[in-house]
Amino acid sequence: xxxxxxxxxxxxxxxxxxxxxxxxxxxxxxxxxxxxxxxxxxxxxxxxxxxxxxxxxxxxxxxxxxxxxxxxxxxxxxxxxxxxxxxxxxxxxxx
Length: 95
Fold this sequence. Notes:
Layout (H helix, E strand, L loop, with lengths): L5 E2 L4 E2 L3 E2 L4 E2 L4 E2 L4 E2 L4 E2 L4 E2 L4 E2 L3 E4 L4 E5 L4 H14 L7
Parallel strand pairs: 1-4, 2-5, 3-6, 4-7, 5-8, 6-9, 7-10
Antiparallel strand pairs: 10-11
């Protein structure tokens, strides 16, 4: 698991490699032995079949997950800002 990765609520990640600066949406299933390269995005409700390789700067969506577009070249900066902001405003669950 790389740095500055955000995994949405209800998602299940069985990937072999998860790079850095990645946004995985809500309710996704990342199959076994998948490889998510740096700076990619997985849209909500996406199911990636086993052994899928997601190249850098791509956006995957659907079931089964396929490339549906690209992400901006500034994805690294966007994820840095997003994850730092999330961390700074994180409120733990009260018991």
